[in-house]
Structures are given as structure tokens and as C-alpha cells.
Amino acid sequence: MSMRRSSDWLKSLNTTKRVLLVMVLFFGFAAVAGSQQPKANLATSNTSHKSPQTQQAKAPAVTTKTETETQSIPFTSTTVQTASLAKGTSKVTTAGVNGSETLTYTVTYTDGQQTDKQLTNTTVTVQPVTQVTSVGTYVAPPPPAPAPSCPNGTYVNSAGNTVCSPYSSPSAPAGATAQCVDGSYSFSQSHSGTCSHHGGVATWL
Q1: CB of 167 closer than 8 Å to CB of 152
Q2: pLDDT for 155-175, tens place per residue?
Q3: pTM for the full predicted model
Q4: Does the first or last residue of the chain, that is N or C, have fewer Cβ atoms within 10 Å of its Cβ?
């Protein structure tokens, strides 16, 4: 249709029909434009928001420290024998003393929490003192035998020793060396002259 004919056709329409025609053309254009607009907005939305799962995880913070601790070293004990103490007795002659040592560790922390601890060095700072207990071994000698009584007195023999004079007894007294013929006992320390005034020697003891 030529432009002139179109113009004549529009002029032939009344006002109401003209208004309706303008509205139909307007809303048709708006519908075409609106069908394209959401796609653009969707594309924009998709590019502006990312899923949290696609974000890279943050690496944990790992640090190490050197730490030290001090602990006690218990003393040990030993015993020694000594004749300066009586047998059956004992005495602590050296008191035991605990020592100490320093332990060095390498400690690992992950995000501020301890996750590992390794012992790297041990140093003895104070040596312990061994406790010594002395055990007595001394045994006192038996007391000397009492000197024999001498009812008939004593005399000094040729060696210069004081001995009992012979005397009678129901049994041989301690220290007697011979029994004389008359039954008395002699304490002579040599055979010469023994029991000379008592009939001679009957038996040597």
C-alpha cells in the first residue's frame, strides 16, 4: 500500500479506532522489549554472585615454639660396711639429695591450638647425691677369763710370772697344768720342780 493510501485509510477511521490502534501498537512493542530484558538481568545476576563452594578454603596458621620444663631426678641409695659401727647397727652417713634436669621441647600450634610436642634435648642441671648407709661389722672380743682364785697364795716363777701355789680341788681348776701325787693341782709353767713338795707329778694336764 502506498503512503498516500495509508494516510487516506487512517483519516477514514474515527477517533475511537485510532486510539485503539495506537494502544495495540504500543503494547505490542512493550511486550517484545520486555521478553528480552530478563535475559540480560539473569546474565548479570549470574556473573555477580558466586557460590561459597567455589571460594578457596583458607589455609590453617601453623607455628612452632621451643619450650622447656624442669623435672626432679630421684637420688639412689647404696650401703657400705664399716668396722666403726657395731655389727647389727646401721647409720646414714651421706644423706641423699634429688637432682634436676631441663627438658627442651619443640611444640607445634595449629590455629593457636597445640597439635604436636617433640622432646629434642635433655640436660642435667643438678646431679643427684647418692644416699650412703653404713652397716656395722665390728664384733667386740669376749671378756678375759677371770683370774683363778689361789687359796694357797701365789708365787713368782723363774719366768717372772705370778702363778697360784698348788692346792686341792674336786676337779681340775682353770689354769692347772698338772695333778700332783697327793691330789693337789699345780699351776707350774715348766716341768722342772713341778709338784716337788707334793709327791711329784701324777698326771700332766
Answers
A1: yes
A2: 888 888 888 999 998 888 988
A3: 0.44
A4: N
